[in-house]
């Protein structure tokens, strides 16, 4: 049974904050990932297939799959945090369920439990191409909120 959470962001401008932070990530730009959905506690990132992001068998590399779902979880957590906070991944587990082959990939991160310092998120990556989207990976992530750290740009 899927639970539908309704979270209230601590920053009323959470949407533009997530977009701005995402735009600062050179790695997302490098691989061609795009932010496609931002809601309180839920973010989606899409990555088009590119042959230069594959492993030796022609599938999207597990590192790329992990990168987009880690970011989806991180930005889902950030969407609920106060304006002066930053977020970092502390720990995650990825299950690679199927070879990542398709025209594009959709990573969805959802907050399961926001906390004062630690937030727990779930993530999924779907392969999109011919036919129905196929679940290729899942993630369970723990993220930490940082505040008042010199050198850390909020978001």
Write structural notes for this entry.
It is a single chain. This protein is α+β, with helices and mostly antiparallel strands and 155 residues long. The model has no long low-confidence stretch (mean pLDDT 94). It has a single domain, classed as Hotdog Thioesterase (Thiol Ester Dehydrase, Chain A), CATH 3.10.129. The protein has a 6-stranded antiparallel beta sheet. A hairpin with a 5-residue loop joins strand 5 and strand 6.
Explain briefly what this protein structure is.
This protein is an alpha+beta fold and 155 residues long.
Secondary structure layout plus pairing:
Blueprint (H helix, E strand, L loop, with lengths): L13 H10 L2 H6 L2 E6 L2 E7 L13 H17 L6 E12 L7 E10 L4 E11 L5 E14 L8
Antiparallel strand pairs: 1-2, 2-4, 3-6, 4-5, 5-6
């Amino acid at each position: 049974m899927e639970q539908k959470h309704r979270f209230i962001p601590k920053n009323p401008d959470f949407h533009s904050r997530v977009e701005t932070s995402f735009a600062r990530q050179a790695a997302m730009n490098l691989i061609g990932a795009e932010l496609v959905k931002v809601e309180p506690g839920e973010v989606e990132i899409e990555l088009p297939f590119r042959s230069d992001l594959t492993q030796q068998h022609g599938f999207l590399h597990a590192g790329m799959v992990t990168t987009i779902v880690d970011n989806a979880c991180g930005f889902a957590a950030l969407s609920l945090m106060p304006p002066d906070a930053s977020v970092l991944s502390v720990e995650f587990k990825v299950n690679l369920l199927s070879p990542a082959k398709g025209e594009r990939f959709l990573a969805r991160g959802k907050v399961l439990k926001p906390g004062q310092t630690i937030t727990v998120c779930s993530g999924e990556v779907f392969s999109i191409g011919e036919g129905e989207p196929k679940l290729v990976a899942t993630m369970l992530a723990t993220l930490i909120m940082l505040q008042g750290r010199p050198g850390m740009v909020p978001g």
